[in-house]
Design a protein that fits this description.
The chain has 226 residues and is α/β, with parallel strands linked by helices. The protein has one domain: 3-Layer(aba) Sandwich (Rossmann fold), CATH 3.40.50.850. The protein has a six-stranded parallel sheet. α4 runs parallel beside α5.
Length: 226
Amino acid sequence: MSWKTAHRSFYYDGAPNPPDPVLSASDTALLVIDVQNVYLGRTAANRTDPAAKSWKPFRDRMTGVVLPQIARLIDAFRDRGLDVIFARIACQLKDGRDRSLSQKKPGWNDLLLPKGRYDSQIAEEIAPLPHEIVVTKTTDSALTGTNLRLILANLSIRNVVCAGIFTDQCVSSTVRSLADESFDVIVVDDACAAGTDDLHFGELSILNMIYCSVMSADDVIGYLPA
């Protein structure tokens, strides 16, 4: 099935196919969202905990699919001279008082990630180069919680290709913010993950056609300039 007909929700059943994107080197960037040590290590730690077993599909998807595909995308963008931008969750203050409410609520989102600590850093497998932009946020949306909007405007970026975690949380929030600001957004299916596949694919069907186009890494690379 083509990306033009896949991941469609009820609202877009039978809608016309979207056009091919035009991704030029002057206006296209890759945005890698929240692929940090805390998430990769947190779900792999304490495997004697019964709850840890429920994270095995996520770990398998990250190691077997998502990290390799993000690395492919990064290499493809760098080889063509396109910008690669990273976003990560990290607070400026050690006690986390600068975090937004969504990062303080009890449960999964209640993380204290001071910006200099190891667990807040981006995973080594896809580490930014020294000259690449990394924005630090205390919100779900990378656009709302940083100066990313200004950075994209200064770089004349109109097309944003999004990859990272979690599809149904920070990726989704960022995509919606970008769409509301009239950026053309692509979400890379096999370069994203949620806690479960059901959450991942469910969110893709919600986002697709209105907030973004959902494609594979192969699709995106095929549209990049030579």
